[in-house]
Specification:
about 80 residues, mainly alpha, 5 helices, globular
Amino acid sequence: MKPEEAVRQLEYTIDASLDEIGQRAAAGYRPTFERVAERADGGAVYDLAGELSQEVVDGSCPSPAEANAAAERVLDDWAYTDGGE
């Protein structure tokens, strides 16, 4: 998954789950997705998008700092498992 696709996925999730404008909220995650894409691959971006989307579905809109912490967990998992496997 490309960073821009991940941002779009979060836009849709936020729009469907919260009473906020998804474009504005999700755009703040783009640098995080780009960093993950540079350090891993599209699979890691997909994993991060899924984790953040689940938080939104659960009623929370993660802050950029929380998104960065989630990104570090995903990257650690990918490094530890050699590609998320």
